[in-house]
Amino acid sequence: MARRRNLFLAVKEALNNVIKHSGASEVLLQLKVEKNALKVAVEDNGKGFEPAAADPGRHGLSNMAQRLHDLAGQCRVRSQPGAGCRVELEVKVVPLSGQSVWWRLFRSAPVSPPKAKEPRT
Fold first, then answer.
1. Can you give the CATH number for the domain in which 88 is found?
2. 91 in a domain, yes or no?
3. Is the pTM above the cut of 0.90?
4. Which pLDDT does position 112 carry in this prediction?
5. Closest Cα partner for 90 from 109, 65, 59, 61?
């Protein structure tokens, strides 16, 4: 549960940064499973920034990087002034045995598919 929470909080931080700092008119949230990895991208068309010159007193970028490091994943921030920002988060996933659609983040965090709803009569 803590592992899923770390991923959720990293995505939430990326979205929060778009809202608070980017001035963007559009944001793209992309989730995909590719080669046993869950990839999440948050991209905006805002004002962008120079990642190397980010204010060290603010902890959002470093918190995202630390959360993904704790998950043995990767956090990449691509941005430049005037060109928006793209945050890419990537963690390894393992397919549930016998099921191609349902995935889980780690072997120690079991996930069950939702139960089918009973038809109304």
1. 3.30.565.10
2. yes
3. no
4. 53
5. 65
The encoded tokens of residue 71 equal 């998950």
Neighbours of 1 (CB within 10 A): 6
Is 114 within the bounds of a domain?
no
Q: Which domain holds residue 87?
A: 2-104
Instruction: Please give the Cα distance from 8 to 27 (Å, whole number).
Output: 17
> Looking at the 3D structure of the chain, how many domains does it have?
1
Closest CA to 28 of 4, 10, 46: 46
Pinpoint the alpha helices (H) of the chain: 2-17, 60-70
What confidence category does residue 117 fall into, taking pLDDT thresholds of 50, 70 and 90? low
Closest of 94, 82, 76, 86 to residue 35, by C-alpha: 94
